Structures are given as structure tokens and as C-alpha cells.
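Table S5 (text form). Sequence records supplied for joint modeling of the two-component complex.
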Amino acid sequence: MTNTKLQAFIPLFYLVWSDDLLTKKEFATLQQFIHSQDWLSTEEKQELLSKTSISNPPSRQDITDWKNKIEQTIQEHTAVKSIFEIVLALSQNDATIQNLETSFVQLENDLGILGEEALSNFRTKSETLTVTHHTDANFDVQKLTSLLDGEQATIINKVKAVISQPEFRLETTTDINFYRQKVYYWCKILADENLGNMAYPKQYGGGENIADYFSIMETLSYHDLSLVIKFGVQFGLWGMSVQSLGTEKHYAKYLKDIGSLKLPGCFAMTETHHGSNVKGLETTATYDHETQTFTIHTPHPKAQKEYIGNAALHGQMATVFAKLMIAGQDYGVNAFIVPLRDENGVVLKGITIGDCGHKMGLNGVDNGTIRFDNMVIPKENMLDRFASVNEEGAFESPIPSDNRRFFTMLGTLVGGRIGIPRSALAAAKTGLTIAIKYSDQRRQFGPEGGSEVPILNYRMHQRRLLIPLAKTYAVHFALQYLTQRFLKKTETEMQEIEALAAGLKSYSTWSTTAILQECREACGGKGYLSENRIDALKNDTEIYTTFEGDNTVLMQLVAKNRLSEFRKAFGEMGSFGIINYVYENAKSVIAEKNPIAIRKTDEAHLLDSEFHLQAFEHREKTILASAAKRIKKLVDDGLDAYDAFNVVQHQMIDVAEAYLDRVVLEQFQIAIAAVKEPDTKQVLNRLCQLYALSQIEKNKAWYLEDNYMEAVKTKAIRKMVNQLCWDIRPDAVALVNAFAIPESCLGELV
Amino acid sequence: MTNTKLQAFIPLFYLVWSDDLLTKKEFATLQQFIHSQDWLSTEEKQELLSKTSISNPPSRQDITDWKNKIEQTIQEHTAVKSIFEIVLALSQNDATIQNLETSFVQLENDLGILGEEALSNFRTKSETLTVTHHTDANFDVQKLTSLLDGEQATIINKVKAVISQPEFRLETTTDINFYRQKVYYWCKILADENLGNMAYPKQYGGGENIADYFSIMETLSYHDLSLVIKFGVQFGLWGMSVQSLGTEKHYAKYLKDIGSLKLPGCFAMTETHHGSNVKGLETTATYDHETQTFTIHTPHPKAQKEYIGNAALHGQMATVFAKLMIAGQDYGVNAFIVPLRDENGVVLKGITIGDCGHKMGLNGVDNGTIRFDNMVIPKENMLDRFASVNEEGAFESPIPSDNRRFFTMLGTLVGGRIGIPRSALAAAKTGLTIAIKYSDQRRQFGPEGGSEVPILNYRMHQRRLLIPLAKTYAVHFALQYLTQRFLKKTETEMQEIEALAAGLKSYSTWSTTAILQECREACGGKGYLSENRIDALKNDTEIYTTFEGDNTVLMQLVAKNRLSEFRKAFGEMGSFGIINYVYENAKSVIAEKNPIAIRKTDEAHLLDSEFHLQAFEHREKTILASAAKRIKKLVDDGLDAYDAFNVVQHQMIDVAEAYLDRVVLEQFQIAIAAVKEPDTKQVLNRLCQLYALSQIEKNKAWYLEDNYMEAVKTKAIRKMVNQLCWDIRPDAVALVNAFAIPESCLGELV
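The corresponding C-alpha cell record, covering 1500 residues in total, follows.
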């Protein structure tokens, strides 16, 4: 094509022959177009048509020449923005061609060519924003680590040092027996380091430091999670059940040996038929006044204890939860110390142990079943802090209601609902460290001719990993707050703290499950190889959403607590109560919900922490009031209350979630307010903004339904979430480095 | 309390002493209340106050008596609806008490008592809706099974019979070596049954039945997924790559032995540094005209082949994708048959095999790495359907563009993107069968005094399992449609079918990942035990979202295809194009978006299939146009196109999702329209309604932002989703029974 006019067709020829999406139909379209150009001579048409014959395609050389011409044109005319501008340039601004813009553009469309993308493939793209974005920390990593660790820095560093030792090299065996023994051996080392008994009273050899105990659980969770759970079963569940439910005589007899792991034990609560509904346990403890004994018995196979950690192999004793029977009367669930094995590990008569076998994860923990066949234990083995049998053989308790006593007992065990979400948090931190560092290094795709791009520069990848990163920071501060509340608890606050613990247990463990899913996918095939750790993190934490209370059940407890608090605050949802509530709520909402506010989209407003908290609070309050009203209405309309609570079960989860969202945001903001160092403050602020806005984005349907925001605002929030991801991306690697997870825990990928 | 007036306090006393949520503060509230009642004498006040002293609680007998009195009252006055009505009855309708309603109710509120729930705990609830709801199939299960299996019923039943044999007892070993050999042994049996070569031409011993081949893949997926993948690697990837990319000489030489598993082989495409971006592969195949050979070489360690199934142990040959180099010139990626091991399994010189080791799942598949050290192969080993080296040693191809040829080659391999989503579908069916049958049997919690309730009667549980059940049915019909389109494909349709396959691969595999997550949680601790199968289903399918193309990358390909189609239909998004589009769209939307329609909430409308499809189509079209406009605007504003596509990446996923949602709904509706049998039709219709409305609910933020629906309508849809779950629940077990999954594949739980 020496005729410059005809050169106008080069871009189209090149695109149809190199694009994988075009078929016969499109070639026909191009041929028609050529035919219809009256300004072309018959010979010219023939020449052009010869380049569009599927049966006689151009040579590779033709295609290469065309490509070179196009690239050259772009280099000479850097401002070109469309395919037609190249067409024009190649024709040397031919006057005829100039008048054909509409039909050329139409042809481009008819061929379905994505002009922008096609054009972009010709440029050397080393300088585009996507390509050049990179890691560049804007704050001091160590300062942030210190802030995260706080007063527990010393114990955290001690635990990190222990798990970084060669003995703690992560286990890769698939042999359950070997793995279980390895985990037991690790626990022994930790016990020898006085880490297991950290929460016990000093007089029984303990460290009397509950705050440190929780930090030990969390830090160990960077390592093997079977170890954490085995550790938690022995020193937390077994030991703390003795400490919380027993009295002095039990402490003196058992605590020291539990803390040193001389006396491995179990926490035998769950039964095959009763997990979440612990009140329905069927194991019996029948008192015999003559022999001063209890007989522990499993009435039928489905009442066996199941999933009990430490039971299958190592446990020598167990805290067993059973219905206390005295003279034929049922006194509800109480706790008893029951021996399972002798010192040599031989299972005792009256005890039958089963093995839960291979599990999805946590295979270093020896979960088992326990059946009791009229196992007789001495009277002193009843853990008698809240109930006992007196000298006359009669039941005694400072708490007369069985129901209330039962929940009081459970309340003392709330520590487990702090340890587990903190362990889940650590697992999320590990997963994000692996995935973010990998995504910063891994390059895939890129502009034609340029180098490939780190996948963390892609928007979807940023959303997948950086929104979870922000949430993980948020949950960190919320769990710090929960721990502080627990450590400083007073009796009046217990209900609130129990609800908060139940709620944050669900919030953190669900968050971890979702985050590790993203991490696995974000690491592609590498994320599937066991050597890269995401496998174990994901499978081990999978059960966190179930044990220590099924999350869905716990969320309903949280919601009931909120409803109860709501009634105290605003009274019966009769017409009076509603007016009262609406008035109370209106005072704060009137400014937030005005026609300007619901459409406000300026950056300062969208990033304003006060706006975030107000929006969270508004959602929390409104959902709560709405659920209360709905239950009332269903019952008024004649539905049985039991059914009414089932009908609103879905809303109950929302009630709990909105409450937890608000607590998490509030505590994140409070923590940031206390930070003095400006760079640290700034990066945390951004994370907090991202957490807040991404949660609003997630719940935007609710905000739109409620008319708290209009579409223009929710759309602006989506953009801002994307922008914040982009802004945080350079700091992302530094932000995971601030978790300061030992190298030995991060697998082979980073 | 013989004084009947005082009996009015019994309900409050009982509640404060038995509720686990009340603390000192609430007791003080109750005491204050008693003090403030002027109508009580000092002695009466004393008597009442004596029942509220924490230091001197009532006896167990007191509490039991109170409870009995309350229960008796309720039995005598079945219409009571509030705590106060019991108060009144107990006081024998005392006139003073009658006037105290407001203050008693206020007290109840101040104590935070959830009256409805408290009241419900006193009733015998054997008759509530939640308790009595149960399984009761309303259709003929076998007829539905026949409908699902269709023309492939014979082969499906054959495969089910094979995998139900004792040799196919599911493997529980954690020993990778043993497991890999077992899976190989299973594959051998399947090959002997002529199941592996089902898709190959008859002249090479095959069954020449691609439809049956896909059904074999899907049905095998009820069994062990390692087996499916090993089977798919051998007969699908390895065999079909020879068939699709090779020519007659290769068929004659290899196909029979591949189909009989005499010649185990690999599909060696992915490299460590290049997975999704296959075009960037770095392995080279250098032609030497003198010796008439190619030299296959791995230029650096990160260019090794990775994750290659059949490589670590069994593969004797591989289809290797490598850049063809002739006389120093790069001719793009082409495919070559390269021997790896001799017949005795000894690795050949020039080949280095690595083992990917333990993975999150699919441990019965021997994935490995392959490195080539100047491995020389004869010229005839080039799979030369689309490109070859001629007698003069020059490159030849009917497709001159390397880019286009590469995508044409890949296009012939699209079958994998049908097999995988169908395998994922089967895994979802298995998981749902286990979880739904378990939830129908598993009872937990229930009204006080009544029996416990099957957990599938709880709303949250229904939402967790029945919405996924509806989606699984929807995906079933969509994948049937995809398979039919593929079987009857013409060249013009190939782009559309490739996009559809890429999209449905993502849609189905993501769906399965999410569904199995719900199944695991819905089965609680039981779902965590390996013996119950969800472990394996979840971990084995986890990689489905990554292999055969990372889902996020595939969804962008789908979106680009949609954008390209859009441009063909509506032209350049200049002002003219937009007007044109708005006009086109307005014609159909004008009726749907009128002020009445956007608020319409009557049941007939909400359940109307036409409304569903219109809503899906509207979303699809609008999102697509919006993405096109946005890209155009970003480029017009000066952003580099490469960056512009990154900015809208999030929207691109939405474009693809909305498209796939519409296809899935449309095909579900079309399939139902063809059903004649009324009971089957009805139950499928309900599932389709649930699928449609739950997807709208999921996307309601979009509908609200677009003003296609107002809040009143989205809220009504949420209620209808819940109602449909409730209505489908009695059929749920029958609906999973209709999948007719062999008992031996369902684990120990059901």
C-alpha cells in the first residue's frame, strides 16, 4: 500500500487479523465497508479487499509491518487518543479521510473493537500509573509495632523468640500420631517456660497475669494453630475451669500440675446431641449420700462427650459437665472432675474413649469422645464454687435458680471467647502478610511491550487484600478493648462484657474465615501449596466459627442483649415508647438526614471520622428499634413468641452486626486519637477511613432503604474506597511488616 | 404470699431470679418499685422486699412454686399475651393492680425483660409453627432426577454403578503416596470401562460422545475429586490437547494409548512466573533445520512448568507449551509433545521433575514441576494443526497473527472450562445433600418443655442452605445449556461460547466455594470431621477458582467480550451513541421504572417470572453501558487506557456477573417452561423464584441506586425470600434426594 490514502486502513487490518475475538461476520463487515467507499477505485478496492480474505490471509511480515507503522505513528503523534486519529495520521491527513470520521468510527464499533484498549496496547507503558505504583513506606514500622504490642511487648517478644527456635520448626507431616506427639512436646516446652500457667495465682506457681496469657495465645497463633488449641485446652479450658468453678481445695490439689503439664486434662462439655444448647446436656452425675460419691454416667450413645480436645490421647482427667441428680431430682448442669487415665496413660475402668479421627484441620489436637459407664468419683470432685451438696446430702447454692446458676458458671468461662478471636486475628495477620508480600512481588500481565505489573497494583487485588487489612487493624484494637474491659470487669458490667465477647468472637472469626479465603485466591496456585501456610491457617481456623459457641447462635445472644438494653432505655414499644424513641433518635439524626447531608459527597465529609461514627450509630440504633417493633407487632398479631423470634432471626443477626461494627469503629477511632506520632497517626487514620467506608459500602443497601444516604453519596463512597486502597497500597507491605510475625511462621512464599 | 394482691409480684420475682442477665442494679430497681407502691402496707412491703435480697435469696422451692403458679395461670388463661396479664390473673383481677398496668409495664422495661420471649418460655410449645414444620415431599423425586439427567441418564447411571463398587470405597489415608497410587488405580478401572476415551473418535477406540464425557466428569465428582482431576488431566487435558492441537499422525500414534491409560501424560502449560498470563510463557522450543528437531529448554528456574498434574509420578509424555524460535525469531507460543519418562517410569535425560508436595486438597493428584535442559524432540512432535515448520524450515500457519493463533489454540481447549464448573456443581450438590439431610435430623434448642427443633426449621439455617440449593439448581440448567451450545457450536458463535464458558466456570466455582463454606458451618463440629466429606469437598474444590484460569481474570475477559458486543450494538459512546442507547433502553424500561412499578409489592408481581427477568436484564444492560461510558470518559479526560481499565476493574466484574446472572435465570426459566409434569414444574418454579429474588436481594443496593426499585419493594423482596425458604423447606430433603448421589459418596453423617 504505497498509496497513502490506503494506509488509512492499516489500523483496521491489523486489528481484525490480530484480535482473537473477530470472526467471519466481522470480516464481512469490513469487506462491505470497503465496497461502499465510492472514493476508492476498483483497483484500490481490490487491493484492500485482498487483505481481508480469510482463505488468503496476509503474511506474518505484512502484520509486522502494519504494527511497526502504527507504533511509529503513535510515537510521532503522542497526543493521539483514538484509532481514527491514527488512521488520519497514516493517510497523511488526507482530506477525503478527514471527512470519513463518522463512518470509520462506526466501522470500529461494528467490529466491536475496544479502541481505548487497542490503542493502549501500542504504547510503551513503562510510565503509566498502574505500572509505576510501588512499595514505599511512609511511616516507621517499629513504632507501629510498639503501638500494637503495647504493654505486652515483653511477653510477645519472649513468645516470638521461643517459637523461632529450631525445635519449633513447623511440622509438615501428614501422620496424625506423629503430629499429635509433636504438639504435645511443644506444649511441654511452653509449660517449662512458664507460659502455660501465666494466668494462675502465684501461690500455685502461676504468673497471675491474665493480660499476658491472652497475648501468649495470640502470639502463639502465628505458629501452629494445633499448638494454640492444645495449649488453650490444657491451660485455658481445663485449668481455668478448675480455677473458675472450683474452690481452694481444687486449686491446691490440681493447679500446679496442670500448669506444668504434669496433669494433662480435658474440658468435657459438648455431647453429640448437645453442642450449642449446653443446657440440654444429658450426662448424669448421681449423688449417693451413703458412699459420699457421684456416679457419672452416659445414658445413651448420643449423650457421649464429643470433640473433646486432649481426650483421644493425653488427658488424664476432665472437667465434666453433667446434670446433678440427688434423690431422683434434677439440679441442672454442674461440673465435676473425673479421672480418665492413670499416670501411665491407661484408660480407667468405666471410661470409654473414642478418637474423632482426621479433621479438616487442627490435626495436632487429639479430639476424642468420652463415654462414662457408671464411673464413680468422690464427693470432693464436684467443682463447688457455685453449687454443692452439703453435709446432709442436700443441694446448696448461693444462686437458687438452676438457669441463672448455669449461666453464671458459663459466664466465668468467657475468657475462651477472648482467646479465640485473638487467635483468629493473628491467623488473619499471618495470611495477609503472606498474601500482600507475595502480591507486591508477583507480576502478571502488563502493557504490551512494558514489564509485567505487581498484582497488588490491580484494583481488584487491592480491594481483596487492603480492605481486609484495614478490618484486621480495626479488629486488633477492638479485641484490645475487649481484653481491657474483661481485665477490669465489675459485676454490673458482666452481661455487657459477655455479650461483647460473644459478639467479637463471631466478628473476628468470621472475618478471619473470609480474609483467608481472599488470601488463598489472591495467591493463586501458590496459595494452594501446603508449604505456603495458607492451607493450614485456613483449615485450622475453619472451626473457630463453631467452637466456643456457634457464631450464628452467639450473634442471637448478642442481639437479645441489645434488645434488653433497648427496652431499658426506651421502654415498651407501645405508641408511647415509639414516640419517645423517635424523639430521642430524631434529635441526633435530624442534622444527619437533611436533604443536603444525604447527598453530601465532598472529600472532607466522606473522610470525616465524625460522619463515619454517626452513620454507624444511626444504623445500630435504627435496626435495633426496628427489630423490637417487629417482634412486638408479630406477637400482637397473634404469632407465638417463639415463632416470632424465628421470623426475625435474620434481623437479629443484623442487630448484632450493626452493634459490633459500631464498637469496632469507635474503638479504632479512640485508639488513633491517643496516638501522638504524626506518621503513625496518619497511616492508621487512612486504615480507619477505609474500614469505615468499606463497611458503609457493604451495607449501602440499608442506608439507601433508610434514606440516610442517596445514590449519589453511596456511589461516591465506592469511589473513595477505591481511592483509599490506592493510597494505602504503597504502605501495604510496611503495614504487614508492622505485625512483626517471625519469618519462620510465614512459609516458603515470602 | 397468701395475700392474692401480692401474688401479682410472682412473675417479676421469678423472672429476676431466673434470668441470667439481671444484676444488682436491676434488683435495686425492683426494690425501689416496691417501696414506691403506696397501696402496700409496711408489712406487705417487707414481705415482698424479702424476696429481692441478693444476700438472702429465695429457696429453690420458692422458685419452683412460682414457676408452677405462672404455668398454671397460662394454662387457665390461654389468651394471655403479656406478663402484665399474668400479673393481673394471679392477683385475681385485683382492682388496684388493674390500675397499675402502666407502672408494671414500665418496671418490666426498666428491668430489660423481653416479655414476649419470657412468656413464650412458659408455654408448652409442641404446636408452634417452628416446631411442627417438617419434611413432606410434594413431588415425585424420580421424575425430577430423570429431568436433571436427561439424555445422559444411561451413562450417569453407569458411572454411579462403577463408583458404588467396593473397590471405589472412599480413601481416608493421609499418606500421599498411597493415595496417588489408589487414584491411579481407579483411573485404570475407568479406562478399562471405556469411560476415559469417551470423547475420542471411534477410529481410535473412543466413544465419540462428548456429551457423555462431560456427564462422566460431573458424575465422578460425587466421588473423590482427586480422581476427577487426575481423570481430567489424562483424558481431557492431555488427550484433548493432542486431539485439538495435533493432526492425524498424532491421533494415530497416541490417542488409543492415552484412552487406555497405557500412555499417561501431562498438560504442561503453566510456569512458575506465568499462570494467568499464558502469553508470557518463557520455555523455548528452538528449531534446528539440520537435525529436523526442536530443543525444548527452560531458560531460568522461574520458567519451569509448575503444578503440572500427572508430572510428579505417572506422566510419560507431556503436551508442552513453548515459544517457538526459528533462526532467532520468536513465533509465539506453540505446543509440542515431549517425552518425560520411559515405559518403566524412569525420568529421561534432559528432564528434571519436582514434586509440588502436599496441597490444601487434591492430594491424590501428583502435581509436579518440570524443567527442560535442552531436551531434543523430533520435528513431528510439534502439534501442528494451527502452525508448523515447512519442508524449507520456515514457519507456516493459516493464522498469521501470533496473538490470534494463540487464542485460537486456547479456544479449542475450552472444554476444560465446561468440565470444571460441572464438577464444581456436583461438589455443591454433594455438600448440600449432606448438610440439608443432617439439618433435617439434627435438633437443637426448642421451646421450654417442648422437644428440640430440627435446625432446618430456623430461618437463618434456611437462608444458609436453601438459597444455595436454589442457586445450585439454577447453575445445573445453565451448565446444561453451556454444554449444548458447545456441542452444537459454529465458528461464528465461538467467541460467545468461550466467554460464556469462562464466565460460568467462574460463576459455578465461586458459588461452590461459598456453598461448601455454608455447608461446613451449618453442620457445626460434624462438618469439621473428615469422615463427613465436607472437608474433602471444600479443600479439593478450593483450587477450582484458580485453575483453568483465575476467576477474576476470566471475569474481565467476559466483561471485555460484553463491552465489545455492546459497541457493536450501540456504537461509540459519544453523545450520539448515548442518545441512541438511552432511547433503545428506554423503550423497554419505561414501563418497568414508572412510579407504580418501582413500589409494587403484591405477591403476584414479586413472584412473576417476567418481572424477574426484566429486572435482571435491566441490570445487565445498565451496568454494561455505564462501564463503557466510564472508560470512555476516563480516556477522554486524559487517563492512559491501560490505567482506565484498571480503574474500572471492579465494575468489569459487575458487568460479567450481571450478564451471567441473566443467562442463568433465563436458562432456568426456559428449562421450566419445557416441563410438563405439574408437581415437578411447581417445585422448580419455586426454586427459580427463590434464585431470582435472592439475587435481586443480594444486588438490592444497585437497584436502589438505579431507582429501579424503592425501599418498600426491596424490603418486600427480603420478606418474600424468607417466605420462599419456609415454603421450600418441606421439599428440601426430596430436592437433594433428586440429585440421586450414591450413598457411598455421602460420608458418615447421613
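Note: Chain A touches chain B through 143 residues (CB under 8 Å).
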